[in-house]
Design brief:
Largest sheet: 5 strands, antiparallel
CATH superfamily of the largest domain: YajQ-like, domain 2
Structural class: alpha+beta
Oligomer: single chain
Number of domains: 2
Order of helices and strands: EHEEHEEEHEEHE
CATH architecture of the largest domain: 2-Layer Sandwich
Length: 161
Amino acid sequence: MPSFDIVSVVDRQEVRNAVDQAAREVATRFDFKGTGTTVQLTDEGIVVESSTEGRLDAAVDVLRSKLVRRKVPLKALAGGEPKTVGGGRVRAVFTVREGIPQDAAKELAKRVRDLGLKVQAQIQGDRLRVQGKQRDDLQRVIAEMKALDYHIPLQFVNFRD
């Protein structure tokens, strides 16, 4: 029986490369001189820190442009609210979301069922498996999910006949 999986994954190496590029650009750009602006990848996520909120926003824009250039979807970033930390500095922490949360998987499964096609959607951990007898039905599900502007990035893998 033909099937495919709907997943939400991010290439960690590309995220690391984008953060490194953003950190290098922030360190060398003239408008960031003397502001102590940093961009780094830590255990808690991507940390952007600066002396003013305006410079923080500019550094976040640099980070986002590097992520887009490396084909990392911006929908995978969560958080990023500026918070004041000690010494009058401002910090924003972004987390990189991976996997489909349970509530989002239920919503996606319901949307697949509402299409009226002869397919079944099963939640398997952090992925959603869609099975059907006809390949055309599965391709229509993929087309509908791509047209859907969902709040997390979706990829379609393991298409099997």
